[in-house]
Every structure is written in structure tokens, then in C-alpha cells.
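User: Show me a protein chain along with its predicted structure.
Assistant: Here is one chain, sequence first, then C-alpha cells.
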Amino acid sequence: MMKAVCLVLLFALIPSESSSSRSSSITQKPQPNPNFKIFNSTDHKNARTCSFTVEVTTSCSSTTYTRDQISLAFGDAYGNQVYVPRIDDPSTRTFERCSSDTFEVYGPCTYEVCYLYLYRSGYDGWMPERVDVYGYNIRAVSFYFNVWIPADVWYGPDYCYGYAARMAAK
């Protein structure tokens, strides 16, 4: 009887362990990528240009506002990359605590966006909660941060199975 109870308990624990490991492998925390490179825009001179809507939600744990310079880069697993050198505008107080800012950006058309990096330069500090990317013919995607963005390094999640890191190494 005792062996049967132990066996039942053992099998009851196995599915919960495997399901939790599955979900943790799907969710990736943002990471610094010091080797990340912005692609030369002339590499995509024959590519169609598309419009994207980027919504940045600043965490309620962030500073009241930031004067830091914020840049953004996102792309797909096929080498299509959208780069926005500065999305901040200190005169309008973008990225205030507990707020959302929406930007319309243009770049080469992409397939499913699977990485997004932020670059912060300055001394105020900034904590985004999440960044949402919407585009024509692509599924909307959300990238969750909720951490302080380090200064002077590209920082974010890469769900392309390391595509951005591999391209940086070339």
C-alpha cells in the first residue's frame, strides 16, 4: 500500500515539473547584448518600407521622468531590422512614470518580430514595463522588461533563438 501511494505521488509531481520547465523556456528575461549591431540601412535598399506602431509603457517603479536618450531596435529571424535612433523627447516628457507613449516608426517590412533591444544613454535611469510592437501583416508582440535598463548597452529579449546574437558575431 505504501509503495502505491509513493508511486502515485511521484507521477503527480512529474507533470507539474515538466510544465513549469516548458513555460520558463518560453519566457526569456531581457539580457544585455554588448555585441549587438545595427544593420546598415543600405543592406535593405530594395526592401519595402513598412509602418509600425510601438507602444512603450513605463513602469510605476521608474523615475518620475527621464531625460535619458532612448534608442530602439527590433527585428525578425530573417535579418529585417527596424532601428529608431532616438524615441525620447525630453521637451514633451516622454517616458513618465506610469504612462504609455505611442510612436509610429518606419523601416523594412518584417516577418514576426522576435527581438527588441533598448539602448539608454544618460544619468536619470529608466524602467520600462513593456514594449508592444504592431505592424501590418504581423502578429502584435509584447516584450516585457520591468527592470532598470543599464546605460550604454543594447538590452532586451531575443526570442529568435539567438538570431541577433549570431548576427552580431559576424
